[in-house]
Amino acid sequence: MTKLNVKVIPNAKQNKLVEEPGRLKVYLTAPAVEGKANEALIEFLAEHFKIKKSRISIIKGAKSREKVIEIRDARPASPARRVRNESKN
User: Fold this and answer.
1) Domains of the chain (ranges plus CATH)?
2) Alpha carbon of 28 to those of 9, 16, 34, 46, 82: distances in Å?
3) What is the b/e burial string over 55-68, where b = at least 16 CB atoms within 10 angstroms of the residue's CB?
């Protein structure tokens, strides 16, 4: 199980992920209305890490741009694992 700190930027021109020290910054084209950005975030991360959407959940910050995401059974070599390890230092 991996926990990630994520900052979401809704209404972006394109979907993209930027690694920052201790967190990921995710730009999404979806608006922050009625949970659309949260749905888009889960879909984007699932595609990025090549895992099923059901393995990703928002455990904190569902109505905030600053979120904590939980990824179950992430591969040890994934960027998610690296970001989590960096945030411990």
Assistant:
1) 2-88 (3.30.1200.10)
2) 6, 7, 15, 14, 22
3) bbebeebeeeeebe
Predicted TM-score (pTM) of this structure: 0.79
Pick the more confident residue, 77 or 68. 68
Q: Which two tokens stand for residue 69?
A: 């995401």
**pLDDT tens-digit series, residues 21-45:** 999 999 999 999 999 999 999 999 9
Supply 29's token pair. Answer: 């084209």
Q: Where are the beta strands (DSSP E) in the chain?
A: 2-9, 16-20, 23-27, 56-60, 66-71
Structure tokens at 41: 């975030």
Is residue 52 within 8 Å of 33, Cβ to Cβ? no
More confident residue, 29 or 84: 29
Report the distance separating Cα 87 and Cα 84, nearest Å.
Answer: 5
* Pairing mode, strands 2-9 and 23-27: parallel
